[in-house]
Amino acid sequence: MLKLQEELIDLKELPAETLDGKEIKLMANVDVSGEIDLVVTTGANGIGLYRTEQILDELGEFPTEDEQAEIYSKLASRIYPETLIIRTFDIGGINLNFSILLNLIHSLVCGIRLLLENLSLFKTQLRAILRASKNKNIQVMLPMISTIEEIWKSKEIITDCKKELKADKIHFDNHIKVGVMIEVPSAAVMSKEFSEEVDFISIGTNDLIQYLMAVDRGNDLVSNLYQEFNPVVIRTIQHIVKEAKKNHKSVSVCGEMAADTLAIPLLIGLGLDSLSISPSTILYAKRIIRSCDYKKAKELAEECLTLRTQEEIISKLEKFLQIIT
Ligand code: PEP
Ligand code: MG
After folding, report:
1. What distance in angstroms lies between residue 207's CA and the mean position of ligand 2's atoms?
2. What average pLDDT score do residues 163-184 get?
3. Per-residue pLDDT averaged across 69-98, rounded?
4. What pTM, to 2 d.p., does this model score?
5. Which residue is closest in CA terms to ligand 1's atom 1?
6. Residue 51 in contact with ligand 1 by CB distance below 6 A
C-alpha cells in the first residue's frame, strides 16, 4: 500500500501518456472550494468541470455579479496557466432549494432550460465569467443542452454580454471558448450538428446513462439498469466522439465513469482527448493511462462495440486491466 502511494506521488510530474505516446488530458472536477488545493497538488491539467451551483449551496443565496467575478477570477489565477472550465449553473435536479426559489416544481427544469427561463440570472453569471476571463484561461460550458436552438440562444446571450462589457470598457477574453455538455440522448444524436456550433464537447455520463436507460439512479427498484457498461452507453459515446472529431472538436468525459479504472482504457480506445474526474482519483487514473497501449486500447474498444451485454463488456475490460496492471 505504501509502495503504491509512493508510486502515485512520483507520477505527479509525469504526463498522462500511454505507453505508445498518446497524451490524455487529465482534468479535475471541482464541487466544493476546499478541493482546489488537491487539484493543484495532484498536477491536474486544469479544471474540466467547475460545478458552480455549489457556490449557491455554500453561500445559501444567489451571488451577485461582483461576487461571482471575484470567485471565478481567484480560481482562474490559482490554476493559471491551466484551463478552468466553468459550467453555468445546473440548478434543478440537485439544487432543490434554489429550484423552489425560482418556482420550479419539476426536476427536469434544470441546466440550460432553467437559465434560458431566468435570463437575468444567466446574464449575471455570464458577465461575471467574462470579467474573470482576462487571462484567457477560462472556458464556458453549458449544461443539459437538448436542442440546437438552446445553443444558438445561449451564444446570442454571450454576444450580448460581450457587447455590454465592451461598452463599459471592461476587459475580457473576446475569444472565450464555449462548449456544451452532452448528457441527454437528443444531444448525443445531434452531436455532429452541436459540435459544429461549439468549441468543445464534454460528455456527462452521469445523466446520459440515466436518460439512455430510462432509470432514476435514486430508485432502488431499477438501479440494476443504471449500467455504465451497457452496449448502448459505449456505442453512444463512440457516436459522439466520431461526430465531434469530424468537426475537429475536442471531447472529454466528465461523469463518474471517467474515474472508473475499468472504463479508462475503453474511453482512451474510443478516442476521448480528456477525462475530468474527482481530484482524489487523478493519480490513480494517470497510473492506468501510463500502463496502457493506445493501439491495444483501440482494439479493446472495437471489440467492446461488438458485444451485446454489460456483463460481456465488463468481463473483457477486467481481462484487459489484469494484463496491464
Ligand atoms: C454528468 O451528468 O455526468 C455530470 C458531470 O453532471 P452532474 O453530475 O453535475 O449532473
Ligand atoms: Mg449532469
Report:
1. 5
2. 98
3. 88
4. 0.95
5. 204
6. yes
